[in-house]
Amino acid sequence: MTSALAAVRRRLHSEDRYYWITSMLAARGLQRAACRLTAANIVACGAMPLLLMFGDLRPMGTRDRTIAVAVAVLCVAMASTWLRSNWPTRRHSQLCVLGGSLMVVVACLIQAHPAIGMVGATAFVVVSAFTAMFHAGWLLAYTWIVGIGTLVVLSVRLGGVRPEVTIAVVALFVVVNAFVAFCCRSVIRLVDNDVHYGELEPLTGLLTRDAFSDRVATIVTRARDDDRFLAIVVVSLDSFSLLTAMGGDAGAKQARVAIGQRLRETLRRDAVLSHVGESEYLVADTFASTDASVLTDRLQHTVRTAPYRLTASIGTVITPLEHLVGHPPHDVVEELITIATSNVYRARRNGGQRTETTANPELTSLRNADEWDDDDLTA
User: Which of 39, 128, 145, 264 has the least C-beta neighbours within 10 A?
Assistant: First the structure.
């Protein structure tokens, strides 16, 4: 019993994946389709009560008909927020689930015949699928509780207090919704990379600056016997302000997402990639020598051939990993990023669309700290 309760508690507190999934969709060019499909479903659900008003089984009384019109209007207003150029925020999406569930309840309960309301309750399957895919377990539990409560009321209206009717209706609802939720969550687990959504930059789905530093700091602290080298690369898009001026904010965001996705596809699986600022990407990878030109040439080619055909000024720093062990990892990483960023400025002063590299630099963080606290890694 205790283990079952613990499992339920874990499900209710499961992590919200909204920003991770929306960034993945945006990176694959599916943002517009996903938003329009969501808006279409909201409008369709809101239109059903209006459609029924033209038949003999329309809601009875002026009050119920007014409520049906109000539900349709609210659904249109809610759907319009999904047609903007940007994803709605996570909070807005959660409010859509909360409000949308209540509107389904109202639309079902105002129907003149309970059977029509029970058919309308199938809309909860759509809400459950969306919630299971994008949001945490507590919100999914809310939609189920609201849906089951609605079906209980409708089944009592239809057959009186007859337990077999109520049990059959609720059981069917639970089975269908549980299967849909299971499929959605299974898909998420198959593609999940175990990255907490707080470590992701919402627009591109790449790591944030802090998450990048933490990942590279972990690489730095690993003891090793080989002589591999760590390369930190800063990729800065040239003429990005001009693109923003010509294509607007929406065009600039689409370019950042598209280039970020191309860079992710170009890099090795173990490489670390981050998006910082408006037009910069950070890359960290390990090599067997101080020659990182294979990587930087590939990055230059990726930016040139990605949508919008931009160019990049790239700054690189590469240093032996064995010399970094035993020193404050975050200080080392920050100094390496600073050196790589300085190389970006030098590349831009020399005309841009080029790479400047510093190999085996003397790091002040190695001279100033002979030992460091283990807590530095988690600070």
Answer: 145
pTM for the predicted model, two decimal places: 0.62
Residue 9 makes CB contacts below 8 A (sequence gap 6+) with none
- Do 84 and 126 meet the contact criterion of CB atoms below 8 Å apart? no
Domains of the chain: which residue ranges? 2-191, 197-378
Contacts of 47 (CB under 8 A, 6+ apart): 72, 75
Nearest to 17 by CA among 185, 136, 125: 136
* pLDDT, tens digit, 9 for 90 and up, residues 263-275: 988 898 889 999 9
For helices 2-12 and 137-159, angle between their N-to-C axes, nearest 10 degrees:
100
What Rg value do the Cα atoms of the chain yield, rounded?
Answer: 27
User: pLDDT tens across 182-210, in order?
Assistant: 888 888 777 665 556 567 787 787 888 98
> Checking DSSP bridges between strand 312-320 and strand 355-359, what pairing results, if any?
parallel
Question: Is the Cβ–Cβ distance between 209 and 281 less than 8 Å?
Answer: no
Superfamily of domain 197-378: Reverse transcriptase/Diguanylate cyclase domain (3.30.70.270)
